[in-house]
Amino acid sequence: QEVISDNKGQIVIKDIITLDESEPGISEIFNLISKPVLSQYNVENDKVNIEGFVNNKVLYLSNTPEQPLCCHEEELPLNQAVDVKGISPEMKCDAELEIEQCNFSMLSEKR
Hints:
The chain is 0% helix and 45% strand. It has strands at 26-44, 47-62, 69-83. It has a three-stranded antiparallel β-sheet, with no helix packed on it.
């Protein structure tokens, strides 16, 4: 096996996560755990198209005493094309996803 390239691509995913009506409201966000999942990839000439999603778990303090600590889980889609000079469809590709940084802010309190 010969390594043609060791490329890295970066994508910024910015989205709003909304609680279901059945979930307790948020008083304070405690933590956000995000994990990327690779669903599939497609190798083209000089490019690899990556599809997957980011699984997000929001751990939060609720505004209801019956259930003070809650977790909301939501998936956000990701699609990215990575330029890889010299790659072609008949070649094998090893694609790995990782999260470098994850930020959050609470836009409004759900009651």
